[in-house]
Write a structure and sequence with these properties.
Blueprint lengths: L7 E8 L2 E6 L3 E6 L13 E7 L2 E7 H4 L11 E6 L4 E6 L1 E8 L4 E3 L8 E7 L2 E6 L1 H4 L6 H7 L14
Parallel strand pairs: 2-11, 5-7
Antiparallel strand pairs: 1-2, 1-8, 3-6, 4-5, 6-7, 9-10, 10-11
């Protein structure tokens, strides 16, 4: 069972046939998918940046980050996640619901399996994969800012660092 002994609220979304979730406390907002502006990057899951009410936000393809082929659906959304230093967007197929889960419904996964996955929530016959935002963005620190520094037309993106 998970070390967390409190009820948790999760934002549940779909990627392919699977259901994933992020803690509602780390979800800033959910927006309709809009094509990010490309920035040069060596990281294959970096899709670019968007302007969110005047703030530059990096956007990542979560399906690619988790190791499967991304297929953009009409229902796609960008979930804006609060990182340790700023905000970042992750592309998902659709947002399903906000779900309240009890401690007994959550099981930890071995840490060596995947740094992006924190636990699994078992709700009736469903398995919802709880993602670890810090693990999702591990290895991406400075990716967008470095790309922006090489692009003088980025209009301030160079100051943005995702950690």
């Amino acid at each position: 069972m998970s070390e967390s002994q409190t009820t948790r609220q999760l934002v549940v979304f779909s990627l392919g046939e699977e259901e994933y979730a992020l803690p509602i406390t780390q979800v800033h907002e959910i927006i309709r998918y809009t094509e990010p502006r490309s920035v040069a990057s060596d990281v294959d899951w970096v899709r670019g940046v968007i302007s969110l009410r005047g703030k530059i936000v990096p956007v990542y393809d979560l399906a690619t980050r988790l190791g499967f082929v991304a297929e953009r659906k009409e229902s796609a959304k960008i979930v804006i996640v609060e990182t340790t230093t700023d905000m970042a967007g992750v592309i998902v197929d659709d947002v399903e619901e906000v779900l309240t889960v009890e401690p007994g419904q959550i099981e930890d996964v071995p840490a060596a399996d995947n740094e992006s996955i924190e636990a699994i929530a078992k709700i009736d016959d469903r398995l919802v994969i709880l993602l670890n935002p810090a693990g999702i963005f591990a290895g991406s620190a400075g990716v967008v800012s470095a790309a922006a520094a090489a692009d003088p037309s980025s209009n301030g993106v160079a100051d943005l660092v995702v950690a």
